[in-house]
Amino acid sequence: MAKQKITVKDTEITIFRKEENDYISLTDIAKSKNFEDPRFVIQNWMKTRYTIDFLGTWEKIYNPVFKRVEFDTFKNEAGTNIFVLTPQKWVEKTGAMGIISKAGRYGGGTFAHKDIAFEFASWISAEFKLYLIKEFQRLKSEENRRKTLEWDVKRLLAKVIIECIQMQ
Length: 168
Known about the structure:
Elements lengths: L2 E6 L2 E8 L2 E5 H6 L6 H9 L2 H14 L5 H10 L9 H8 L4 E4 L6 E5 H11 L1 H42 L1
Antiparallel strand pairs: 1-2, 2-3, 3-5, 4-5
C-alpha cells in the first residue's frame, strides 16, 4: 500500500490505493480546521443526517455486503442532540468499505474513498474542495504520464532485445 502526499492550502494530505481505489485521509483534511483534534471535525460531519444519507447511498451503490438495517438505525438517529458517530462505529456496524479507520499514531487515521473525501472536503469549505480536486487530478495526471513513459521504455527495450537476437 504505497502512500502518496499532496498539499492543499498548506495542509499535507495522504492518499493510498486499495484494490484499484484511491483513499484520501479525512484526518489530514480535518487538520485544516482543527490541527489538534481532527477526529472531532470528522465526528461532527458524520453526525448530520445529510452525511449519513450520502454515506449510506454510496455504500448501497458500491458495497454488496452493506448492512442496510444498521444503516437505517443510524439514519433515524442522525441529527438528534444525543447522536454521536465515529468512523470506527460506522464501519463496524454497517460493514462499510468507503471509510477505513486505522489506529496508530503514525500512519493511522480515517481514510475515505475519493468520492466520500471530496464530499467531506466540501463540508470543510467549497474552496478547500476545489483545491483538493485540482491537486488530486494533478497527481493522477503525473501518474498517467509516468505509466506511459514506463510502457514506452519497456516497448523500446523489448524491440532492441529482439533486434539484437535477430542479428546473432
